[in-house]
Fold:
Amino acid sequence: LSFSYPVSQLEIELYAFREGLTPDEGGLGRYEHFKRATNLVWPDTIWNPWLERQLESLCENQWVSWTGCAASGKTYASAMYAMIWWLADPQHSSVILSSTTAKMIRKRAWANIQHLWRSSESQFPGNMVDSKTTLQAVKGDDKNAIFAIAVLDGSTSKAVANIQGIHSERVLAIIDEATDTPEAAFEATSNLSKGCKEFQLLAIGNPHSTLDQHGRFSEPVVGWDNVGVETQEWETKRGVCI
Structure:
C-alpha cells in the first residue's frame, strides 16, 4: 500500500505497536505506540479516561470483554482500534466486525469505520466497498480486509460460513451486541484463533444476563459473587473484562 502520511514516523509506530516493543527492547509498549500512531492518523482525537482505558485493555490482552452502560463509546473505540490494528499490516490482516442485523451494523460499527476512514489526516489506505460493508486492503481483495457481518439477518448458518471462510495470518474479531449474538456465530468467531498466527477477540455488550454469550465470556475467574456494580475490572477465564 502507498501512504500519504509522514511514512517513516507512522511506520515506526505501527511496527512497534504490532511487535509490542517494550522499553527493554527500545520501544514504549504497545499502548503508547498505538496512541502515537492514532495521533498521526487522526490528530484531532480527543482522549478521555474511558477511551484510554478501553484501548489500553485491547493493547494488553488477547481476549477482552467490555461491559457497561449505553453511549459510553464502546463501538467507536473498538472501530478506532480495529483501524490502527489493521493498518499495522493490512495485506496480511482481517478484521471481523459482527453485529446482530445489517441495519445495526450500518448504524453503529460500519458508520464509525466510514467516519474514521474519511476523517483521517490524509487518505486512509484501502478500497472502501460500501455495498459489501468491506474495506479491502487493495481493490478486489476479499481475504485481507475489514468486514462487517450481520449474524441474525437471514440464515445464521450463512453468517457462520462467512466467518469461517476468513483465513488471514492476523485476525481481529469484534463482536458488538454480544448479548444477542447466536452461540454458533460466537463460537465460529472464537475458533478462528486456531488457524492464524495472530488472533484477538473483543466482545462488547450492555449486560443483560450472566447466562447469555456475553455474560459467559465475561465470567470472573473468582465467580460472579465476588464482583459487583462498583467493580471496574476483573480477570476472566480467557482474559479480562472491563
User: Anything to note?
Assistant: Residues 74-87 form the longest helix (14 residues).
